[in-house]
Structures are given as structure tokens and as C-alpha cells.
Amino acid sequence: MTLPPTARRLAARRGIQAGLALCLGATLAACAGSADPDESAAGGGGDEQTVTFRSWSPIEQTTRQMIDSFTESNPDVTIDSTIFNYPEYIVDLQTRASSGTMPDIVGLQPGALTQQYREKLMPLEQCAADTWGDDWESKFHPVGLEQARMGNPEGDEHYYALPLLVQTVNLWANSELLDAAGVEPPATWADLQAAVATLGDAGDAAPFLLPAKDAWLRNVVFLQIANNLEPGRVYQAENGEVPWTDARIVEAFDYWSKLFTEGIAQDGALALDAYPNGVNQFEAGNAAMIPLGAWWIQQSDPSKTEIAPLSEGMAGYEPFLFPTLPGGAAESQLVGGIDVALGISADAANPDLACEVLTDWIAGDGGQVLINTFNDLPAVTGLDPEEFTSDKQEQIWNQLTQDWMPKVQWSRYFLSPEIDTAVADALAGVAAGQLTPQQAAESVQAVQDQQG
Amino acid sequence: MTAFTPPVPATRNTRVAGTGPRRPARRLTRERLVALGFIAPAVALFAVFVVYPIVFNVQSSLLDWDGVSAGTPVGLDNYRELFSDPVFHTTLRNSAFWIVLTIVPQAALGFTLAWLLNTRLRGRTVYRTLFFLPAVLSPVVVGIVWQRLLDPFNGVLAQLGRATGIDVLTRSYLSDPSTAIFAVIVVNVWMWTGFSMLFYLAGLQLVDHSVVEAARIDGATGWQLIRRIVLPLLKPTHLALLLLGIIGSLKTFELVWVLTEGGPNHASELMPTYLFKQAFQLQSFGYGATIAVVLLVVAVGSSLAMLRTFGSGFITGDRS
Questions:
Q1: Where would you tag: which of A210, A281, A358, A421 has the fewest CB atoms within 10 A of its CB?
Q2: How many CB pairs under 8 A join A and B?
Q3: Which residue of A has its CA nearest to B264?
């Protein structure tokens, strides 16, 4: 086709314009993939008396109280904080880190997330030692410290994050529903089957509400099952010491499958999220048991304006561990770890001030304010709420912090996000009936092989 | 084939043809500078907010990069991996379902509602508002509400189904891999039908009544009138909705994320949800950028194909 001269000129002009635009864009975008963009002198963009903080946890209202506690005793300090939902937070953090505007203090999860930002975080041992003395590590629950360094390269013993809150993952029972049906929290798999049958006949409430839409929840339930069958085997699989197709791991997938095929979990479990729908159902008394974790005690936070009747002083709940399984460990294993850890940007405008804030929130007055809200369990030992609203609440708190947390041996996290996702996908496939337990294990092994 | 005639303004056409009065060169240069001054802010914004992210994404797609540390150039490896990734194939299949099964029902329902509400119906303003309401709600709110409605354990539909014996209402649509994407599509149609209705209402009110009256006088009634007169006159509206529908389908994220997170086991995954998971949850920013580039190519390609097929004035109804 031959274009007339006017059209040719127009096309040429358009070509030049597009080329110029692309050149301009290419020049502007020359930094994609570079590790060290020009850092702003003040790290998070604040001055020396301002500390910037971004995280997904603790919740906004609690963070505000912690900030107020710190600034009351340090009136010349400003803490600029933003709390996001987790998905938004990881986008914000990645964008800020890659554009040289990382906040002074950031919320972190152990393992992959901390490792992703390791080069942009400062080691915290000196900060901890200056504040708490040389034996500062003895203040923390061991599993918290262990997980804080999870994934560090060999020989790197630094702490790039310190735990703020820790947790167990476990099951919770609605005491009223269980009492009414004459059922005890199940201790064995057979007990669980019997309890589900009895509770199913007793009323309309779901005997075992499993919010399996969430990948994290699928994984923590699976980790409880797998560790109850053969403690530690899944972590060996992740390290490549045994294959994922190991008979005990396949058996763990099989028990996960039985939650669905034997009618233990409610119908449509794969479509129910833990927050807000699952917990709303549980708090409304529509479920007898639910897998969550120690943080459920936050429902009884006395500073809340409205507390559901079941949550008032934890009147309607009791925690228990995932039942033991035939041929597995004699006792239920404790799985848990860090809920949220804090790190300080290597480019913080005033690292000493950031350290003061961080240590205050972990074990100082700010930490006390945080723990008073029952947000989760403290990473340090001996930090308890100043006030309990009921004996049951105090008894549950002591059980979680003194009986369970110090004995947590198994991590609720996988080290690699690829394996974490592969396991979550495999569990969804099994639950949906798309994969057999053997195929599920093979699919995780395939991802591991791909990773090398 | 007819000769190509670019759509140029009449005044320029006149000058190019050489029949208009010639202006002094200095004045022409000044006019050009002024014109450039006017378009410069738009060009600058376009460069920063459109060209820069596109080039950045293309560049990122050629890297093995977590988005924070230094990236490693891998050439086209991400593209090779993507095209052999079964989840990506699922996202393409789901996008095709989404485009067909949202645009057509939304248009049909939207037109029907608009036709009915374009009459002298009592309370029509209230009905129009009610039908349009879902379109102004946050997809997150819509997602949470529908998740509760569709919950087979304790949802409203399941309870209704159990009470009436209609088993189809008690099925677990969102947790079944074979139905999850269609359940989300139904919710999407519910949400956006009011938007289509509004477009058609505007279109119907622009239809020349004399043409409709002439058709009536000629004996056209009911379905005949709609099919042969009204629907053809609404062509710009159909095409505008088609274009918006395709682009909207390709960038849908929130509703799917809240309802299924792309699950179970990726059964309802779309390109934007998979992109988010790769870039931010799996720390594979380079791979996520590759999905973004493919998404961009598909979106631009389909828009250009429409422009090529229907002409640039198809939305306004201008012939070009």
C-alpha cells in the first residue's frame, strides 16, 4: 500500500514522537534492577528527631498507644507511623526499599521477608546489648531468636530483626458448645472424629470450622499435623535431607485430606477466609472448634469498645493443641514462632533514636502498653498484662506464655516462599480433590527440584 | 481498497493543499513554541506516569530480581518460563471466560434494564439508583458480602436452599475448582450491570425519536423495533462497553482476590492476581513484571484491534 505524502509525513512524525518518548522513558527507567538507588540522606525522609515506622502489625489503635507512651517521655520526638493490611504493606515496603525511602523501623516476618531486606537493615545486637546488657538474648523466647536469624547466609550471625510478638499455632474450642454436647477438647484423632460426630448431631454449629481459603492457615494446620506425625520431618524435606515424597509426609497430606473427606471440616472450607468471615462465625458461636493461634486472646482486649459475650474475659473459649495421630508422636507438638519482628533501616536518619523506640516497644513501656491489649504473646519473657479481666483470661494467658511458648520447637514458617506457596497449593489441590496425597507431595518436590 | 486519508483538521488541510494564505515564518515558529508549551505538561506527565513504568517493567522482565537486591539479567528466560507455566495458561483461559461471560450478559441485562427504565415507570429514578448502586460499592465490600452469601455452611443462599429443598443453592461454588471462576464472574456481572444500564440509558436518550416514530408508523413493534432500529442506533454504546469491558476484564483484581485469592489451587487465577503473587509474595519481581508486560501487550493489542476494526470515532459515533 502506498501512502500519500501527507500521511507519510504524519507517520514519520508519529514515529519520531514515539521514539522520543521511548528514549525519555528508557533514560528515566535506567535503574530497574539496580540494588542501590541514590539513598536520601535521611533514610525514611525524616529529620533526626523523627522516626518513621511502617508495618502491618500491631493494629493502628495499639500502635498509636505505643507511640503516645514513647513520646510522653520523649516529647521532642515524633514518630510517623502507618499501619497497612499485609498485602499492601509488602508492596509499600518493596517500593520504598527500592527507591531509597525505606522507613526507619519496619515490621518483618522471619525468613524470606527479612532476608529480602537484609542488605538494607542494620544488625541489632549492639542496640540490644546497649539497652538490655550483654546477656540480652536470655530475655527472649528461644524460638523467637532462632527464627529472627532464619535464612541468614552461613557465617552471618547478625540479628537483622528482633521479635516483637510471638505466638503458638493451635486450636480453640467454644467451651459452651463443647460443654453442652458433653465433649472434651479432643486429644487424639479418634477423639476428634468422635467430637465432630457428637457436635454435628448436637446443633447447627460447625463442629470444626476450617477457614482453608487462606494459604497461611492451610500451612499452619498442615505443619501441626506433620509434626504430630513425625516431628521435624517437613523441615528436613525443605532442607533436602529427605524427599517430600517421604512416607510420613505423604501421610500428613493424607490426614489433611481426611479433614475434608471424613466431613470433619465444614462444607465449602476452601472458600472461607479466617479474617473476617471465619473468626466472625466463631465469635458469634457458630462453630465449636477452629484452628487459629495464641493471638485469639486479643478478642478479650479490655480496651476494645465492644467485646462479644464469648470473648469477655475469654469466658467462652479454651485453647488446645492439634490432636495426636495414630503412629505419630506421643504428645501433640508445639508449633509457632514470630508473629511480627522489627528491623531498623541501615539508612535510618538517627539509628540510636530508632533503637530506643524499637527496644521500648519490645520490652519497655511501649511493650507494656502493647501487651496490655493482649495483641499476641510478648517476645520477651516475664512481660504480662497489668490487668486481667477474669481468672480464665489470666489462666489462658499463663498457659500460653508459660506452659506453651517456651516449649515451641517447630516453626510455623517455611524458609522459602516458593516452598511455602507450593505446599499451600498442594494442600488446596488435595482439599479440592484434584490431587492425591502422593501427587501433592510430588508437586512440592517438583518445586524444590526446580529451585535446585 | 480505498486510499488512506488521515483525519486532519480542516484548517490544516487547507494549508497543506496550499490554497490558504501563508503566514510569516517567525510567527509560525512562535505559534509552534506556544503549542509545544501547552502540550509539554501533558507530555511530561505521560512520560513519567505511562512511558516510565512501561519501560521499567520491560527492563525488569529481563531480570531475575526480587525487587530490592541487585537483579541478574536473564534475557528472555522469564518469557520462556511464563509461556510454559501452567498457571499462566489458566489465567489466559480464565481471562477469555471473563471477557465473554461478563461483557455479553452485562450488556444484555444492562440494555434490558435501561429499556424498561426508559419508560414512564413510576419510581424509575429509585430503580435506576438501586441498580447502579453495586457499581459504586468497593469491590472489597462486594467480595466480603458475596462470600458470606455463598458460604455453603452458613450462607444465606445455602440456608434458603436447605429451607426450600433447592439443592443447587447449597453447593460450594467458590471452593469448587470447576465452578470458582464462574461464581466470581456472576458476582462481577451483578456488580457492573448497573454501569452498562447507565450507558444504555444515556444512549437511548440520544436516539432520534423521529426515527423510532417513523419505524412505528411503518409497522415496527416490540422486538422488531429493538432489533432493527434501536440496537443498531446504539452501536457506539455497544462498542464503548466492549472496549471498557475488555480492559476492565484484564485488570480485575480486588473482587477475585477477596472472593477466592485466585484459588482453589489457581482455578480462578487471573493475570493481575498471579502477577501480584509472583512480584510481592514470591519475591519474583522480574517474573511478575513479565506477566505485566504480557498483560499490557494483550490490553493494547485488543484496544488497537478495536480501533482498527471500528475506527477511532466509534465511541462518539463520529464516522472516521
A1: A421
A2: 161
A3: A428
